[in-house]
Design a protein that fits this description.
alpha+beta, Arc Repressor Mutant, subunit A, three-stranded mixed sheet, about 40% helix, about 15% strand, binds zinc ion
Length: about 150
């Protein structure tokens, strides 16, 4: 996604395209759907030589999530919130597969699957918030598959 496109997206949700918002969105866009925590984002921004502080990253994430540009999910293993860009208008919350072996994640933007999962969870007395569902898996290509318990 070009910076112009990111600026367009920010304007579309009535957020002023500040440098920190564009930078954060650019890192999330480059991550290609991989959910990132505020710490991940901060580290990547620093690696790219962007001047920022962790407080700004948190605030930016909250604003972009509040505006509906980002989806937040809870990474239970690492006890932290992770974020990714909400894809398209009809995208809505999605399902994210997270490999417990190699930590790779696979975002599935499948509204039907999400609805089905939400319904099944409800039958088990679990209500999901309007956010991505994470499912832990061990992927077939996992180099650490032998160590998975
Ligand atoms: Zn794996």
């Amino acid at each position: 996604m070009s910076d112009d496109k990111l600026i367009q997206l920010l304007r579309a949700v009535k957020l002023r395209p500040t440098i920190s918002r564009i930078s954060v969105m650019r890192v999330l866009d480059t991550a290609g759907g991989e959910p990132l925590s505020a710490d991940d984002l901060f580290r990547r921004l620093m690696e790219q030589g962007e001047r920022c502080n962790i407080g700004t990253v948190y605030r930016t994430l909250q604003q972009c999530e509040g505006a509906g540009m980002l989806l937040r999910a809870w990474d239970d293993a690492q006890r932290r919130s992770v974020y990714r860009i909400r894809q398209g208008d009809a995208g809505g919350p999605a399902v994210c597969l997270l490999c417990r072996g190699c930590d790779r994640s696979f975002a599935l933007d499948d509204a039907l699957l999400y609805e089905h999962l939400a319904r099944v969870m409800q039958q088990h007395g679990v209500r999901v918030a309007d956010q991505a569902v994470q499912i832990e898996i061990t992927c077939a290509a996992c180099p650490r598959i032998g160590y998975a318990s």
